[in-house]
Design brief:
The chain has about 850 residues and is mostly helical. The protein is built from 31 helices and ten strands. The strands form five sheets. The protein has a two-stranded antiparallel ribbon with strand order 1-2.
């Protein structure tokens, strides 16, 4: 036994020489008070927690905090606020409500927020714990967080209670609790309490504060080695049972959120499928020409062909006006650029831009004159932006009535489409274009004024057409919203048209990417030392890919038979039946001729530059034109299928699920885990409290299985299947979704059983509404930390007895000398320092 330990043992007894009351009101010497605590830390802590006044304070907190909903509620509940502040050692601030509100409402993630700017870091810890900007006071409503507050409260109050016996003993407890979390000397210097203890123990005078922080740190580091104060060992070994249970419950909660996200996505799918199944069963009554909707169906038979014409005319006009508005805004910007042109060369460049943009609107191929719709029922090509009242129409375009008025229901509901003629607008825009192009740099201001005046006139003429088209769109929508369409259309033909167009548009997207690759190869071929052999190997592969894309349409299958879509990229225009002789057209193209046959067989030094230019100016333009045609015609066929056809509306429900399936699956993601993803991994849930690991199986086959069922449904629709056949296919999709849903619910159920078991145990330990957990665990510390703080305690006791302590103070020698001075002088030798 060391001299110091022997002396401490003597002093720690009830008859210790420092057992009498100390100056400053302490009832015990520091070393006695600390030794008394250290002999049985758990008992000391448990006795404190069991005190009636302490239990009453905790019970009141748990009761009152559950009634709080807002920050104002917390600030107005003085007792609860005081309990919370006490947990952070800030209860002295209870009479500064404005400051406390500002701290509580501070953003803990903002280094410039009030809480983080205050020198006392406890304010920042409080703000971070509550995080009211993101959570209100919900962080105080959970049992786990209430336990943390109670732990903090008990820790602070217990140390204060020990401080009543002796303030230095409280310092010792605080030091041992905090020092293991300190990673640098600078953290000690930044903490007023730790700084005071350490500098006192090392006998460093207060005047060192006048020196640089680095110098102060150097002085402290001469007396201590922080590594000696670190408790070694795994965190797992020191976790309390409540901590283990809490960690397991958090793991279960996170896993449950992942399962719930997948269940939510699947529930949405199954609900929509169930609803569609019920509606298919009722479809025969809705569309029966002799049934309850007989009168409406008779009106709709006449209305539908006209509605399709109005829809097509309005859609084309709407796209044309939108495109024209974009151009007009760009032209308007060029006027300012022209006024600020530095020289004639800069002006010429701006004039070229102006002419090129204006020409996109002007001419027979411009936005306005080409906003035409072909009606297969009448064989007419019309344009509600050029109805023929303003001048000669382009070849092939027929005049249009000033108003197309279609009654869609027996109650007189009508869809009205008005037309106009923008011939004067085109003339005015061309005048503006020509005057802008004729502007001279020498007379720039006057010339641009003239061109801009012409442009303003054209824009003023155009604006009513924009408004009129908006009214046309609204009129059709209003008519549709007030009408239940019951006339049965040719769903099979219209479905084929819709799927064929979608297939063509999908392939066009890839074709555009391949053309960009070809342009890049052409650029490479123009570089010095280009490897034409390697370039042409890639080019040949791109040509082969284009050939496949253009000549191979998509298909659907029921697993046994297959139906190919119409090839709208190679076989030209196809008409689809709406009902009887009424048709809707998909204007396809022939990319075999305009693209495959037109591209050179190989890239050479001689044709590379031309090929690069042709990709943008010719090939991509051809593809874009075809894309625009298909998108325009899709709007009409979709309108017929998904709005006017009652069966098509139901089919669209399933197709929409298929179209958005990736998005639905992505919505099941929880922090990077997604049990519905085809690339997901199983979730392993390790529960340390019960020593088991649960495996939650990822449903990686769901997407492919469900998509297969949806493809079979499309096959049924294209094969002319009746409603019963549709329901069979729908049931297959529903079975896939429900099977996956059932498996995940079973996983959730098993996980919830574990949750209940662990939660009951945790509740039993904590008590209702949260209770102490960490507080009851003894503080862990190293021998070096204990020896350092005992030195401090002895030093404080000696100071209290009036002994002088300086930088040469030796605790061992001081204690031995004091003991020797009070022993009888009998010749007995007491060698405590050997």
């Amino acid at each position: 036994m060391s001299d110091f330990a022997a002396a401490s043992a003597i002093l720690g007894g009830s008859g210790g020489i420092f057992g009498a009351a100390q100056s400053g009101g302490a009832s015990l010497s520091a070393i006695v008070a600390f030794r008394s605590y250290e002999r049985d830390q758990v008992a000391a802590r448990q006795n404190f927690a069991d005190r009636a006044d302490v239990k009453a304070a905790i019970d009141a907190f748990k009761k009152d905090v559950s009634r709080l909903d807002t920050v104002d509620d917390l600030l107005n509940d003085r007792d609860t606020l005081q309990f919370l502040l006490a947990g952070f050692g800030l209860d002295a601030e209870i009479n500064n409500p404005g400051k406390i509100r500002a701290v509580i409402e501070s953003d803990p993630d903002d280094i410039n927020s009030l809480a983080n700017r205050l020198a006392d870091t406890r304010f920042g810890e409080l703000a971070k714990f509550l995080d009211t900007p993101n959570n209100g006071i919900s962080n105080l409503q959970s049992s786990t967080n209430q336990s943390k507050v109670i732990d903090k409260y008990l820790t602070v109050q217990f140390e204060r209670d020990l401080g009543v016996q002796n303030p230095a003993a409280r310092d010792a407890l605080f030091f041992l609790r905090r020092i293991n979390d300190v990673n640098s000397t600078f953290e000690i210097l930044a903490d007023p309490a730790l700084r005071g203890i350490v500098t006192d123990a090392l006998n460093l005078p207060p005047e060192i504060a006048r020196q640089s922080v680095e110098k102060q740190a150097s002085l402290v580091e001469r007396g201590i080695n922080l590594d000696d104060f670190k408790v070694n060992g795994s965190t797992e070994a020191t976790r309390s049972r409540v901590e283990v249970l809490t960690d397991d419950l958090n793991t279960i909660s996170n896993t449950s959120q992942t399962i719930d996200a997948a269940i939510s996505a699947l529930t949405d799918i199954t609900t929509r499928l169930d609803t569609a199944r019920s509606q298919y069963a009722d479809l025969v009554n809705i569309s029966d020409p002799a049934g309850v909707n007989a009168a409406e169906i008779a009106v709709q038979e006449t209305a539908i062909p006209e509605l399709l014409r109005q829809r097509g005319l309005t859609a084309d006009a709407n796209q044309a006006t939108l495109n024209t508005r974009v151009i007009l805004d760009q032209l308007d910007d060029l006027f300012l650029q022209a006024r600020n042109a530095e020289d004639a060369t800069a002006l010429a460049d701006i004039q070229t831009q102006f002419t090129d943009l204006a020409d996109q609107v002007l001419g027979d191929d411009g936005f306005i004159n080409s906003a035409t719709f072909f009606d297969p029922a009448t064989g007419l090509t019309q344009n509600i932006l050029r109805n023929g009242t303003g001048g000669t129409l382009p070849t092939g375009t027929s005049a249009t009535a000033a108003q197309i008025d279609t009654t869609v229901a027996t109650d007189g509901t009508r869809a009205i489409t008005n037309s106009t003629d923008l011939a004067s607008f085109l003339t005015e825009l061309q005048t503006a274009r020509d005057s802008f192009a004729a502007a001279n740099f020498a007379t720039l201001s006057v010339d641009i004024d003239t061109a801009e005046a012409n442009f303003d006139t054209a824009e003023t003429t155009f604006e009513p057409a924009e408004t009129l088209n908006g009214i046309n769109v609204a009129s059709i929508l209003n008519a549709l919203n007030n009408t239940q369409f019951s006339k049965e259309l040719d769903t099979q033909s219209l479905s084929r048209g819709q799927l064929s167009i979608d297939d063509g548009l999908s392939r066009i997207t890839t074709i555009e990417r391949v053309l960009s690759d070809i342009k890049e190869l052409a650029q490479q071929a123009q570089e010095a030392g280009a490897n034409l052999t390697k370039i042409n190997a890639s080019y040949t592969a791109r040509l082969s890919e284009l050939n496949t894309l253009i000549n191979t349409p998509g298909s659907v299958t029921d697993g046994t038979s297959t139906i190919n879509f119409d090839n709208l990229l190679a076989d030209g225009t196809v008409n689809y039946t709406v009902f009887d002789a009424n048709q809707a057209r998909a204007e396809g193209g022939d990319l075999k001729t305009s693209l495959i046959a037109a591209l050179p067989a190989s890239i050479t030094v001689g044709n590379a530059a031309t090929l690069e230019t042709d990709v943008d100016d010719t090939y991509k333009v051809t593809v874009t034109d075809l894309k625009n045609q298909l998108e325009r015609d899709r709007s009409v066929i979709n309108y017929a299928l998904e709005t006017l056809d009652p069966r098509g509306r139901l089919d669209a429900t399933l197709r929409e699920i298929g179209t958005t399936l990736d998005e639905i699956i992505a919505g099941a993601d929880n922090g990077g885990d997604n049990l519905l993803s085809e690339f997901a991994s199983n979730l392993r849930v390790t529960l340390d409290a019960v020593g088991t690991t649960l495996t939650i199986d990822a449903q990686t086959s769901f997407k492919s299985d469900f998509q297969t069922a949806l493809n079979a449904f499309d096959y049924t629709a294209l094969n002319g299947g009746d409603d019963d056949a549709r329901v069979v296919s729908l049931n297959d999709a529903l079975f896939t979704a429900q099977g996956t849903l059932g498996r995940l619910r079973a996983e959730s159920y098993a996980l919830n059983i574990q949750r209940e078991i662990l939660f009951e145990e945790k509740t039993a330990i904590e008590g209702d509404g949260g209770q102490a957990s960490d507080f009851l665990q003894p503080i862990e510390f190293t021998d070096a930390a204990l020896k350092f703080i005992e030195r401090y305690l002895v030093q404080k006791d000696l100071e209290a007895q009036g002994f002088s302590v300086d930088t040469n103070f030796n605790a061992d020698v001081a204690i031995a000398q004091q003991i020797a001075s009070i022993l009888p002088q009998t010749g007995l030798v007491l060698n405590l320092l050997v």
